[in-house]
From TrEMBL:
Similarity comment: family membership: Belongs to the DprA/Smf family.
Organism: Marinisporobacter balticus
Domain Smf/DprA SLOG as annotated: residue spans: 80-287
Protein name: DNA processing protein
Domain DprA winged helix: residue ranges: 301-354
One GO BP annotation of this record: DNA-mediated transformation
PANTHER family recorded: PROTEIN SMF (PTHR43022:SF1)
Length: 359
């Protein structure tokens, strides 16, 4: 078995959280050693909770690791370690990056310039509208949108990106075998198809309240900047803003009605130095992100054949080249030629596994 398999097993044990995992690996050096070391040796080390040791001993059976890994594979979930190429680059640079990330969908190079949009679950009509517009405008500028797939602001930010041909990434506070909230199941499928869904929690982990503050550090850690749309003074979105500041990310806030509790948090952020945002130009200028051309502008000089391939990739990305061939019914040489032209024009990108996406 791989060290990664042992690491996933250790990560799945009751009582072994992010900090505990870090401590155990610091002491023993590897998850495989923890699996194989004698009971006597385990109990020798001070500072390790006896309940944790008992959990490790009770579950040290090879078949349990195989069953766990197989269950993850059946859910089409990828396992990323910090050293893996697809592990998000921005996350590697925060104070406490997850040892393991569980992923559905794909991470691409341009995600390094992603912008996070967060805010109230019980957002006002104004808040939902602003979140959608921000998601839409970022998508049209070619910027990946990150959020937490919660009700309200998160949901509308994801939809704004998806419904305008953009990429979006959702960070969950539960295992990827659970959709939370349940009403966002269709949205979750769309995000997986046009971006990625990530979690540091193993399959079977429920959306417990205590998971979400830790989840928020990943939202801010993956982004170049965080926009807070609506938030009360005690909102979890302000926790995300605090993480962003600690991680050296830019914090932006949407101004709101001074009499609205949902704007009390964002207005305070602005008073404390967050950049006031009225449109995405304020965000992109501050982050020094160059705006890519709108997708419609990109299509101006495409031939009929190139446009046909481009449109299929746009609607189905990431799409495997074999599936593209099945849809078009063209010969291999013809499709390969058009794909090459679109790549040379800087319009599409081929990922590992022969997957095609818009660039």
């Amino acid at each position: 078995m791989r060290e990664k398999d042992y690491l996933v097993w250790l990560h799945s044990l009751k009582g072994v959280g992010h900090k505990s995992l870090e401590k155990l690996l610091e002491i023993f050096g590897s998850a495989e050693k923890i699996f194989k070391i004698s009971v006597e040796e385990l109990y020798k080390f001070k500072g390790i909770n006896h309940n944790m040791v008992h959990s490790i001993i009770k579950n040290r059976e090879t078949f349990k690791i195989h069953a766990l890994i197989e269950g993850i594979k059946k859910q089409n979930i990828d396992i990323l370690e910090r050293e893996d190429e697809e592990y998000p680059e921005n996350l590697k640079n925060i104070y406490d990056p997850p040892f393991i990330l569980y992923k559905k969908g794909c991470i691409v190079s341009k995600d390094v310039e992603a912008v996070a949009i967060v805010g109230a679950r019980k957002a006002s009509t104004y808040g939902k509208y602003v979140a959608y517009q921000l998601g839409k405008d970022l998508a049209k500028a070619g910027i990946t949108v990150i959020s937490g797939m919660a009700y309200g602001v998160d949901t509308m930010a994801h939809k704004g990106a998806l419904e305008n041909g953009g990429r979006t990434i959702a960070i969950l506070g539960c295992g990827l075998d659970t959709c939370y909230p349940k009403s966002n199941y269709d949205l979750m499928l769309q995000i997986e198809k046009n971006g990625a869904i990530l979690s540091e929690y193993n399959i079977g982990t429920k959306p417990l309240a205590g998971n979400f503050p830790a989840r928020n550090r990943i939202i801010s850690g993956m982004a170049k900047g965080v926009i807070v749309v609506e938030a009360s003074i005690k909102s979890g979105s302000l926790i995300t803003a605090e993480f962003a500041l600690e991680q050296g990310r830019e914090v932006f806030a949407i101004p709101g009605n001074i009499n609205s509790p949902l704007s009390s948090g964002t207005n305070k952020l602005i008073k404390d130095g967050a950049k006031l945002v009225t449109d995405i130009e304020d965000v992109l200028e501050e982050l020094h992100i160059e705006i890519s051309k709108d997708q419609e502008e990109k299509r101006v000089n495409l031939s009929e054949l190139e446009s046909e391939v481009y449109d299929i990739i746009l609607k189905n990305q990431p799409i495997h080249t074999d599936l593209l061939m099945n849809q078009l019914r063209w010969n291999v040489g013809k499709i390969s030629s058009v794909i090459t032209i679109l790549q040379l024009k800087g319009l599409i990108e081929q990922l590992p596994g022969k997957l095609l996406i818009l660039k």
